[in-house]
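Record type: monomer structure entry
Structure origin: computed from sequence
Chain ID: A
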Amino acid sequence: MTTITTSLPDELVQRLAEHAKTMGLPKNKLIEKALSLYLDHLKRAAYVKSYKTAADDEDILTLAEEGLQAYFNQLEDGTR
């Protein structure tokens, strides 16, 4: 495990200490969990952004429509 040193505003450290005490966790474990959740949130936000960008891209939309048509055709051929 790696050790890091950082500076945080006093008010944030106070809030951290209060929540850690309430939850019965060491502050470092609360920071670890919060950071992990936040990084997951950023990853999901980037994923959503990529879909929104793709929705405005005519080439991507054309490829998607062609792919759906090919899939539909396969379903049709398989049920006959």
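Annotation 1: The radius of gyration is 24 Å.
Annotation 2: The chain has a mean pLDDT of 86.
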